Amino acid sequence: MTGGSEHELIDAAKAGSADAFADLVRSYRVRLLRFLVTRSASYADAEDALQDTLIAAYRYLHSYDSRWRFSTWLYRIAIRNAGRIRSQNIVELADLVDEEDDPLQHCIRASETENLWVSARRILNDEVFIATWLRYAEDMSINDISKALDRSDSWTKVNLLRARKALDAEMNGNNDGNEAYG
Predict the structure, then answer these.
(1) Which of the 8 DSSP states describes residue 3?
(2) 176 backbone dihedrals φ, ψ, rounded to 5°
(3) Fewer CB within 10 A of the end CB, N or C, for the chain?
């Protein structure tokens, strides 16, 4: 099954059509994976979170409320799954050997400092980073971000502004040791 509007695909998927669901999530798969990679310790964890997200979306599609955008509902599920996988990995990370003296790790860290999203991930707390990603990488509206994070529009606007200021200070070397949301 190919084609049809998002609402038609949702209705068909709710009626039990696996093909309609596959068509529905196909356009979100790459974007969700890209988002989850920023939230996960590894690409494999991001893939696991993506799989869990799609399974949960299919399983709970009947609970989707058409007053919300489907993407907002789907990202909310993804955020929860990434958080769950991330908390499972905290214990595993504590067991890793210190890699401070590894030259490869040093090179990777050096190249990552040039990346805005890596800087954002480092200096912003989880919720503010998610809000920033959804706004600037996924081009979601303030309202949709607020719904996805279960926050007010005011909270979203204020924290996006603060995130931009913190990133500007970080990227322009004006960070005097005060990390905005670390």
Answers:
(1) -
(2) -90, 35
(3) C
**Angle at Cα 25 formed by Cα 21 and Cα 26, nearest 5°?**
110
**Count of structural domains, the chain:** 2
Claim to verify: residue 55 and residue 144 sit in the same structural domain: no
Q: pLDDT for 70-98, tens place per residue?
A: 998 999 898 888 877 665 554 444 444 44
Separation of alpha carbons 32 and 154, rounded Å? 25
Enumerate residues 6+ apart whose C-beta is below 8 A from 46: 33, 36, 37, 39, 40, 82
Q: Let me know whether 3 and 66 are in one domain.
A: yes
Q: What is the CATH number of the domain that holds 22?
A: 1.10.1740.10
Range of the structural domain that residue 122 is part of = 100-182
Mean pLDDT of 51-55: 91
Residues 1 and 78 placed together within one structural domain of the fold = yes
Say how far apart CA 129 and CA 135 lie, in whole Å. Answer: 10
